[in-house]
Amino acid sequence: MAESVWSDWFPVLRWARGYGRGQLGGDLTAAAVVTLLLIPQALAYAVLAGMPPVTGLYASIVPMAVYALMCSSNVLGPGPTALRSVMSAAAVGAVVTPGGDAFIATSAVLAVLVGVALLVMGALRMGFMAHFLSQPVLAGFITAGGLLIAMSQVGHLLGVPLASGDALAFARSLIARAGDAHGLTLAVGAASIVAMVVARRWGRMALTRLAIPAAVADVLVKAAPLLVMAAAIGAAHAFDAPARGVAVVGDIPRGLPGLSVAPLLTVPWTTVQALLLPALLIAAMTFVEQISIAQSMAARRGERLDANAEMRAMGAANVAAGLTGAFAIGASFARTTVVAESGGRTPAAGLYTAVLLALAALLLTPWLRALPMAVLAAVVLVSLGSLLDWASFRRNWHYSRADFAAQALTFVATLLVDLVSGLMVGVLASLALHLWRSSHPHIAVVGNVAGTEHYRNVRRHDVITHPHLLGLRVDESLFFANVHHLEQRIDAELAAQPAIRDVILQCTAVNDIDASALQVLTALNDRLRQRGVRLHLSEVKGPVMDRLRRSDFLQRLSGHIYLTHHQAVQALRAPPPDA
Amino acid sequence: MAESVWSDWFPVLRWARGYGRGQLGGDLTAAAVVTLLLIPQALAYAVLAGMPPVTGLYASIVPMAVYALMCSSNVLGPGPTALRSVMSAAAVGAVVTPGGDAFIATSAVLAVLVGVALLVMGALRMGFMAHFLSQPVLAGFITAGGLLIAMSQVGHLLGVPLASGDALAFARSLIARAGDAHGLTLAVGAASIVAMVVARRWGRMALTRLAIPAAVADVLVKAAPLLVMAAAIGAAHAFDAPARGVAVVGDIPRGLPGLSVAPLLTVPWTTVQALLLPALLIAAMTFVEQISIAQSMAARRGERLDANAEMRAMGAANVAAGLTGAFAIGASFARTTVVAESGGRTPAAGLYTAVLLALAALLLTPWLRALPMAVLAAVVLVSLGSLLDWASFRRNWHYSRADFAAQALTFVATLLVDLVSGLMVGVLASLALHLWRSSHPHIAVVGNVAGTEHYRNVRRHDVITHPHLLGLRVDESLFFANVHHLEQRIDAELAAQPAIRDVILQCTAVNDIDASALQVLTALNDRLRQRGVRLHLSEVKGPVMDRLRRSDFLQRLSGHIYLTHHQAVQALRAPPPDA
Fold first, then answer.
1. Which residue in the set A480, A485, A508 is minimally distant from B134, CB to CB?
2. Which of B400, B437, B483 sits opposite A547 (nearest CB)?
3. What integer pLDDT is reported at residue A579 of this predicted model?
4. What is the pTM of this model?
5. Alpha-carbon torsion A194, A199, A201, A205, what sign?
6. Percent helix, strand, coil in chain A (nearest 5)?
7. A423 pLDDT more than 90
8. B459 and chain A in contact, CB less than 8 A
9. Chain A residues near residue B426 by CB distance under 8 angstroms
């Protein structure tokens, strides 16, 4: 028992036993390749989060190791992502002025809060909460987020500070400041973008034509952003870029991340409270994205996935990120694919990646001071394509206008207001849509299919009905928000057919009757009785019947309960004496 | 067409044509009796709302006339109610200091907002929104509201100012100040309560024993509070109550309410914004109460009710209340019963009541200045019994613990925090409960009932299944919050029974598949295909099928769509070649 709990929380206790040479090669290769991809992204996304570049490496080292010990997916890894970084910057920027120690500490607190939210959701098995981010809302939000991220990088690319919180502020400041663009900065950024796009599109083909083995070509293509950074650092040194007005990263501390709890304790409680809602939203989004990536990978590889273990592992990774001075992190589809394609076999690949990144933090940092900011902006921009999901807008428009409306509303609110409000608007729109739908349940008048015991909708089938009998099927559980709809429908049917003397509710799809619905049904029964109409129920499910027995409804019911709708109609089809 | 719209909005255009002597007698009697009851309540509830007593009459004159022209119920009438008054006092008191012109103007603005909310809900046919106040939440709220109202009157009764916003503040100030109680004030209040309770309980019996005709006795009993007030005014004059320290109403303006828009325009926009949420909640509560009263009356009298007309009429009445300097109003069950019992036949009774109240405002006001406040408190206290619904707590505890929890939470939050927060907590608790339930739909593995074409839950019935076939019935529409539950269930079933090659979803109860659910089903289909498992659907409803045709799901589906679940099992029951 105790051992099973331990190995539930730390699946490493299970897979480490069978670990051997068979896995080592693949895991090491995958770790090396993903490190090449991760270093530039980590630095760029740290800047996107408003944090010192080196914290991007910190956000990957300890968290990746923690995650590897706790996760159930063999190829997923946590790390900085563009969307979470820009959300972190927006949420923290709303309560603390950017660019100081307070901003760094508050970002770390946000990461801890995101982690705690994930751990709590995992412990309470509340993963379902995260699903209130519906797919159209998430797609609308991520697409708008991608555009906002692109806007936030334009300033670095042009070498002028631009507003980037919302689309209108960006447009206004772009119009006002575009003329001040710094030519050399723009040239450096544009050249970096071109180099990375060319490498990604045609690099592999060109290298294999040069008779370079495919495996080596693949690694070189993935290292392209890192090579561009190296080249840019070299050029910046050679031509003294800072003196020519090109903004560079500047001095950054060398070394490994340490446990830094003291700065977190300086963050006031009111700030923590203001971060709770953003933390919850980031946690929900992180979980939904992570699970969809992990599920598609597990299916492709024929592996089992434990969603609760994933939630816990990502929660612990975020807490670790916060405690080592970094910011909120999540799973990346691109990096996960790279690990899988490079032969990653077990979570140990994450441990090796953590070691390689620690070496990078120790050895590379002195070189980074000359890295132009425009190159980091270029790294961000070329990775944004996967966020812009225009196809989903078209698909949802065709499939469901209501879903499209929720998506469009989220997109517009995110672009024009801010990331947190946009996502909140989307969640509320999804909920409102769901409530509207479930408070208008499908109710069908049913009649007998001749020669059978089946009862079907009179509008769709040729069925037998009786003028003094009304058979109604409600296709939903009865609860406070929809029971009035049923009541109104019965009133309307009775008004249209005054001959009705018996109403039979077919309860095939009624899985629950809550206290409000029970009260309305009781009142309805009394009202119908005063009009000389009896109320009957048929096909009531076991649990619903058990509960009705605990109320006085069955004693007050003017009619009967029938096992099947057919039995009810058989018993009641003789015209009443007063008809 | 145009005429029908006019008479939809103003049903008076329909009923006025047939109006004659037959209705006049009953309507006039009802108007006279309800006026006797309404005058003391109007004055008392105005004080409860923190408003000058005369505004209680204003709140009934023009609003009652407006309502009579627009309503569809023959016996309902709008006017001050204890619960709305205390909610108005709490909402307005949260933004404006009580006891000045700003408080009066802001209360009037709140009434206008409540009215506009009702009119908008009526116009958009959003009456269903009001039903998100579930019955247990409403009962919990009203009971706590009744207690808070009682607490608010204790100060007037003891002649010392007490805090009354929440139960704890009240308890603390009662303990601190109870010793300062003013004996004579308490005696006046206690005597009034005793007189009114005695009159209500035994008055009719005593009067008929004195050979007074039953009809006259009834009217006298209903006039008891008014008679108590008259006696108190007489006694206060005779013994110069103010000089002896008994608080009295004091000078109040004489005359009719006028259109007073100018003071409303002085209320700042930020105040209006702060009142929006309270206004929405009061509007929703007003509508739910009004409809439940109107429906039970219409059923008892065999009349038809137009819920939208009721909502519009109550909306217009509240706007009229605000524009004539009064506060938010609603329907009262007690007064409605009185109108029905005294022979009210048409909404014209409301018009006559308005005229009688106008006369009262003109003629009675000079007498009111000597009325002790403690008597008004007594009027409020004896009317509170109907609000305290302890039976519903016991009933819900037995019927549904979840409903009971929502009720208890609302009750406690209302008592300990405040009225608006309490109601909000209740609405959110109801919604959370609904979302939790609908995101955990009932899913049954189904098998064939031998010798029939019926398929039933394998856990409850003795049915035939096949090891390579999994038949699942989902008893709810598939949407973003519950589709993951289905996915996890299928994964669990496949893990438990690796022989499964075909999964058939019986879609009998699936009335809708939203875009998120479609995406998950598509991904699930792809995942199952990779494991060599086919996905089939059976008994898909027409509208759902139409929509699926507008996506690429049917092209990607690895299995087939079957008209009935039985056809699916017949087609697939032969073991697959690889089994």
1. A480
2. B400
3. 44
4. 0.71
5. positive
6. 65, 5, 30
7. no
8. no
9. none
Closest-CA distance, A451 to chain B, in angstroms, reads: 14
In 3D, which of B49, B62, B60, B139 has the Cα closest to residue B332? B60
Nearest CA in chain B to A488: B307
Q: Residue B484: which of A128, A398, A531 has the nearest Cβ?
A: A128
CB-CB under 8 Å, B133 with A481: no
Nearest to B438 by CA among B512, B539, B506: B512
Q: What is the pLDDT of residue B40?
A: 81
Residues of B in contact with A434 (CB under 8 A): 435, 438, 479-481
**Tell me: the pLDDT tens digits for B358-390?**
998 888 888 888 888 898 889 888 888 778 889
The string of pLDDT tens digits covering residues A150-178 is: 998 898 888 888 887 788 889 999 999 88
Contacts of B362 by beta carbon, 8 Å cutoff, 6+ apart: B254, B255, B256
* Residue B409 pLDDT class (50, 70, 90 cuts): very high
C-beta atoms of A514 and B480 within 8 A: no
Q: How far apart are the first and last CA of chain A?
A: 69
Neighboring chain B residues of A460 at a CB cutoff of 8 Å: 542
User: Which chain A residues touch B476 with a CB distance below 8 Å?
Assistant: 476-477, 511
- List pLDDT tens digits, range A42-73: 888 898 899 988 899 999 999 999 999 988 88
pLDDT at A547 over 70: yes
The four Cα atoms B340, B342, B345, B350 give a dihedral, to 10 degrees, of -90
* ipTM higher than the 0.90 cut: no
- Give yes or no for A554 touching B (CB within 8 A): no
Q: Is B211 left (phi over 0), alpha (psi -120 to 50) or beta?
A: left
Token pair, residue B477, equals 């529409």
Token pair recorded at residue A93: 């920027």
- CB-CB neighbors (< 8 A) of B439 in chain A: 128, 131
Q: Least CB-CB distance to B516: which of A134, A300, A302?
A: A134
> For tokens 């270029």, what's the residue?
A378
- Determine the Cα–Cα distance for residues B186 and B188; give it in Å rounded to an integer: 5
Domain ranges of chain B: 20-132+165-387, 443-572
pLDDT at B579: 44
Q: What are phi and psi of A38, to 5 degrees?
A: -75, -35
In whole angstroms, what separates CA A292 from the centre of its chain?
8
CA dist B124 and B90 (Å) reads 29
Q: Does the beta-carbon distance from A511 to B476 stay under 8 Å?
A: yes
Indicate if the pLDDT at residue B302 is higher than 80.
no
Q: Which of B473, B514, B520 should we substitute to test contact with A (largest number of A Cβ atoms within 10 Å)?
A: B514
Q: With the C-alpha atoms ordered B367, B372, B377, B378, is the resulting torsion angle positive or negative? A: negative
Show which of residues 526-545 on chain B sit within 8 Å of chain A, judged by CB atoms: 526-527, 530-531, 542
Neighboring chain A residues of B530 at a CB cutoff of 8 Å: 299-300, 302
The answer to whether the CB atoms of B526 and A299 lie below 8 A apart is: yes
- What's the token pair of residue A254? 């060398």
pLDDT average, residue stretch B381-409? 88
Interchain pair B132, A435: CB under 8 A = yes
Residue with structure tokens 């407006």?
B66
Residue B12 pLDDT > 70, yes or no?
yes
B477 contact A CB<8A: yes
Q: What are the contacts of A9-14 at 24+ separation with CB within 8 A?
A: A9/A70, A9/A309, A9/A312, A10/A69, A10/A70, A11/A70, A11/A71, A11/A72, A11/A306, A11/A309, A11/A347, A12/A68, A12/A69, A12/A70, A12/A347
- CA B273/CA A269 separation, integer angstroms: 28
pLDDT for res A1: 44
Sole residue written with tokens 């259109």 = B259
Query: Please, what CATH class does the domain formed by A443-572 belong to?
Result: alpha beta
